[in-house]
Design brief:
Blueprint lengths: L2 H11 L1 H25 L2 H19 L5 H19 L8 E3 L2 E3 L1 H19 L12 H16 L7 H24 L3 H28 L14 H4 L9 H21 L3 H21 L2 H17 L3 H21 L1 H21 L6 H18 L10 H8 L13 H34 L3 H20 L10 H20 L4
Antiparallel strand pairs: 1-2
Length: 493
């Protein structure tokens, strides 16, 4: 071990280092407690205090697994909070027009500990284990460009809000690559995602069949029969929930394909079927296409001849059994699926239809890009421009409902091209690993990431905006962590 690493290991184990962190966290708890008691927000106080006190206990007991393990735990809490925290109304602290979510508090703690690590290491950062520097460089350039775009952004407040969200999720990508370094971390990340999927499927099924919803959502108190049975999980609307399911669908199929435990395989298969069902009942056409694309890609390109034959045999048998034992359910699913896919053609001729509005959103977005000479309207300013400078009617729909267009219009051609190149390179690397490796675990992780990113092409077009949609950033973080681990262990790519 080098002298610097030995010195840092001693610092991590030292009582004084733990005391610094304990003092900071104690002060943070005191400040949050004082502010919340004044506002009467006791539930949030208990939640945040519990998380921070948990970290205090780890430090106070000088847990044997070093500070990096504490950062890993905080990062997993960040990921969990990202999956479930944004939708839980009782976990949100309103501060004027700003809302403080658990994920934001946890990120402040992570950055504090990380900065302390750098300071005690004389300003040096050990990134020798990071092999995906170019990807991180792009995300860093993206954040810098977003900050510079404030200079020409028409709405400064929208720009700042967008930059904060972008910086937060880019930070998560960096921390994930920095702290998740081995197969154990990858397994835990995969298990956490699969657990989140199972839990949120249960919530969605409960919502769909009861018409009840968890507090803190746009349709929480919805009483109209045509809307109250739409599932939203822990997201604000059915489209966001459906996008999460579409991106998570491959994690369920790979659990069925690669895990030998019979119970886990059944959970994977059931989750895949139920996820597909919930996507259909949300009536999200983009996500229906995304899942069909994922499944087609899987069958055609990621299965051998024997597996293809099994799929060709099992799919029709399953459909026949569904129609025989549950004819009404089968008919409803078929009717909804055909109606949603067929609506593209029928809605195209109606000015106020979803398809026509989306077309006009694209036309306006391209016009905005032209007016800004390809530099973009500035971070988060697409909505402002749509509200004030639109040439084509969108009937009060301001969000672009297309992530690719959102990146292009907000940040301009340079960032958009860079983003597309990064996306293609990640997909290419995952494809390479899947075909190159013979390790079952590597394939089990590479496959859902590859399929989810393929589905992301269409799934990202369903939500109003995905700049603050945590699962998409976690997907990119997971993919880059996996690629980094592969490159670190194999210099063949």
């Amino acid at each position: 071990m080098r002298n610097r690493e030995l010195k840092w290991s001693k610092i991590q184990a030292s009582k004084s280092f733990c005391n610094v962190i304990i003092i900071f966290l104690a002060i943070l708890v005191a400040l949050i407690a004082s502010w919340m008691v004044a506002r009467g927000s006791m539930t949030m106080l208990i939640f945040i205090s519990g998380l921070i006190l948990f970290a205090l206990i780890l430090c106070a007991q000088k847990w044997s697994a070093k500070i990096s393990t504490l950062q890993k735990i905080l990062l997993y809490l960040v990921i969990t909070a990202g999956f479930i925290g944004d939708g839980l109304g009782f976990l949100i602290i309103p501060v004027g027009s700003i809302h403080i979510f658990p994920i934001r508090i946890l990120m402040i703690i992570m950055w504090f500990i990380f900065v302390i690590q750098i300071l005690v290491n004389h300003g040096k950062l050990n990134i020798s284990h990071i092999k995906v520097n170019r990807y991180l460089q792009f995300f860093g350039i993206w954040v810098i460009y977003a900050i510079l775009s404030v200079a020409w952004a028409a709405s400064k407040s929208d720009a700042i809000s967008n930059i904060i969200a972008l910086f937060r999720y880019v930070s998560i990508i960096f921390f994930a690559i920095y702290y998740f370094r081995n197969t154990k971390d990858l397994k835990l990340f995969y298990s956490l995602w699969l657990a989140m999927l199972c839990g949120l499927i249960i919530v969605g099924i409960w919502e769909h069949f009861t018409g009840h919803h968890l507090p803190g959502y746009g349709i929480y108190e919805e009483m109209r029969a045509s809307f109250m049975f739409y599932p939203t999980g822990v997201f604000y609307n059915p489209n966001d929930y459906s996008t999460f399911l579409a991106l998570s669908f491959p994690f369920a199929t790979t659990a069925f394909r690669y895990i030998k435990n019979v119970l886990i395989r059944l959970i994977g298969l059931s989750s895949a079927i139920l996820a597909l069902y919930l996507i259909i009942v949300t009536e999200s056409r983009a996500n229906i296409i995304a899942v069909l694309l994922e499944f087609t890609f899987l069958v055609l390109l990621l299965t051998n001849l024997r597996q293809k034959f099994k799929v060709m045999l099992l799919v029709p048998i399953s459909l026949i059994m569904l129609c025989f034992f549950m004819p009404e359910t089968g008919q409803n699913i078929y009717s909804q699926l055909m109606a949603q896919l067929g609506s593209f053609r029928t809605e195209a001729v109606i000015d106020t239809s979803s398809v026509a509005i989306r077309v006009n959103l694209v036309r306006n977005g391209i016009m905005f890009l032209y007016l800004t000479m390809g530099f973009g309207v500035g971070a988060g300013n697409a909505n402002h421009w749509m509200a004030n400078f639109a040439a084509y009617k969108t009937y009060e729909v301001l969000c672009l409902h297309n992530w690719w267009l959102e990146v292009l219009v907000n940040y301009g051609i340079i960032i958009f091209v860079g983003y597309v190149v990064v996306y293609i390179c990640i997909v290419r690397n995952l494809w390479y690993v899947w075909h190159k490796t013979q390790d079952r675990m590597d394939r089990m992780i590479a496959e859902p990431l590859l399929l989810a990113l393929i589905g992301f092409i269409f799934a990202s077009m369903s939500p109003a905006s995905v700049i603050g949609f945590s699962p998409q950033w976690f997907l990119f973080a997971f993919a880059l962590v996996f690629i980094n681990c592969w490159l670190k262990n194999s210099h063949m790519m």
